[in-house]
Specification:
This protein is mostly helical. It has 15 helices and two strands. InterPro entries: EmrE (IPR032713), EmrE-like (IPR037185).
C-alpha cells in the first residue's frame, strides 16, 4: 500500500510536465528544447544529490559494465518517452495528452511476460517469468474507459490529431519498456536516485543530437523556456521520477503490486486537468469529464485494495537496499 501512495505522489509531480509543456508551446517555445533542457538540468541536479549521499561510484561502475544496455534502454525510457510527449503538446491540450498517455498502464501489464523477477521461497531464490495480472488489467481497462469519457467532448470538437495520437502511443510504450528493462539490468544494485541519474546520463547522446536539430531548425531557447524547463526538471524529472522508480522498485518482485503502482499514473489526468484549469483557464463543466474522473480515481483505489489482498509479499523478504527506503520516508 505504501508503494501505491508513493505512486500517487509521483503522478502529482509528473502532471507538472504536461501543464508546463503546454504552457511553453502556447508561449511559442520549441518542443525540442522543452525535452532536451529537462534532461540537461536533471543530470547536475541528480548528480549533486547522489554525490552528497556518497553513492556516485556504483553508478559509474554499472555504466561501465553494461554501456550498451544503459544507452539503448535509457534512450527508450527517457528519450523516446519524453520527446514524443513534448511534441504532442503541439496538437492537443495538456490534459488530453496526459489522458492518452495512460495507455502506458495497460502496456506495462502486457509487457510483464517479457521480463523475469526473482522471488524467495522455501527452496531459496526462484527466477520466474512475469505474468499479466488479470484483475488489475480489467481495472486498468475501466480506468481507460473513464479517460475515454474525459476525452469525448474534445473529440467531438475536433481537438487533437492523428499525429498527436501516434506520438502519445510511442511514449506510452517506450516508458514502461525502458523502466522495466533497466530494473532488470540493475537487479536491485542501484537505488532510485542512482538509477535515475544513470539513465539521465545514458540518454544524453539522444538529447544532444536532438538539440543540434533544434538549434538548426529554430535557434536557441528563450529565457522563459529555460526557466520553465528547469521547473519541469525539478518537479517531474527529479522528484516524480525518483518517487515512481522507488515505488516500482518496492513492488518489482510482485507483478500485481507493480501493476497497481503503475496504475496510479492515471491520476496524472486529474492533476493535469486541475493545473490547466488554474493556469490556462479551461472549463471543467462536462459531465463526461467528471464521470471519467470518478472512474479513474476509483480504479486507482481498487487497484491499491487488490494489491493489499495479494498473498505472499515475496518482495519483502528480498534483499533490499536501505537507501531506497530512506528516500521514500
Amino acid at each position: 500500500m505504501k508503494a501505491v501512495w508513493i505512486g500517487v505522489a509521483a503522478s502529482f509531480f509528473f502532471a507538472s510536465s504536461f501543464v508546463l509543456n503546454r504552457l511553453m508551446e502556447v508561449d511559442g517555445g520549441y518542443w525540442v528544447w522543452s525535452g532536451a533542457l529537462r534532461y540537461f538540468f536533471m543530470v547536475p541536479l541528480l548528480g549533486m544529490l547522489v554525490v552528497v549521499r556518497k553513492e556516485l561510484t556504483p553508478v559509474w561502475r554499472e555504466l561501465r559494465q553494461q554501456p550498451l544496455q544503459w544507452l539503448v534502454w535509457s534512450t527508450f525510457g527517457f528519450g523516446l518517452f519524453y520527446a514524443p510527449l513534448c511534441a504532442s503538446a503541439i496538437f492537443a491540450p495538456a490534459w488530453l495528452t496526459a489522458a492518452g498517455f495512460q495507455l502506458t498502464i495497460v502496456v506495462g501489464m502486457l509487457l510483464s511476460p517479457l521480463f523475469f523477477f526473482t522471488s524467495t521461497g522455501p527452496n531459496g531464490a526462484v527466477r520466474q517469468r512475469g505474468r499479466i495480472p488479470r484483475s488489475a488489467l480489467m481495472i486498468a481497462l475501466i480506468m481507460l474507459a473513464g479517460i475515454g469519457l474525459m476525452q469525448l467532448e474534445q473529440a467531438q470538437t475536433g481537438a487533437g490529431s492523428w499525429q498527436g495520437i501516434v506520438l502519445i502511443v510511442i511514449a506510452a510504450i517506450a516508458y514502461p519498456l525502458g523502466n522495466r528493462k533497466m530494473m532488470e539490468v540493475c537487479d536491485g544494485r542501484l537505488n532510485a536516485f542512482q538509477r535515475t541519474l544513470g539513465m539521465s546520463i545514458a540518454s544524453l547522446p539522444f538529447w544532444l543530437v536532438l538539440s543540434w536539430f533544434g538549434w538548426w531548425q529554430e535557434g536557441g531557447p528563450s529565457g522563459g523556456q529555460i526557466g520553465q524547463s528547469f521547473l519541469v526538471a525539478l518537479f517531474s524529472g527529479v522528484i516524480a521520477t525518483v518517487l515512481f522508480f522507488g515505488a516500482t522498485d518496492q513492488a518489482r518482485s510482485h507483478p500485481a503490486r507493480l501493476a497497481a503502482v503503475e496504475a496510479t499514473q492515471a491520476l496524472e489526468v486529474v492533476f493535469t486537468l486541475l493545473g490547466e484549469w488554474i493556469l490556462l483557464g479551461i472549463t471543467l463543466t462536462s459531465v463526461g469529464m467528471w464521470c471519467g474522473m470518478v472512474l479513474v480515481v476509483g480504479g486507482v483505489i481498487m487497484n491499491a485494495w487488490l494489491s493489499m489482498r495479494q498473498p505472499g509479499a515475496s518482495g519483502r523478504r528480498q534483499r533490499r537496499n536501505r537507501a531506497d527506503t530512506n528516500i521514500l520516508h
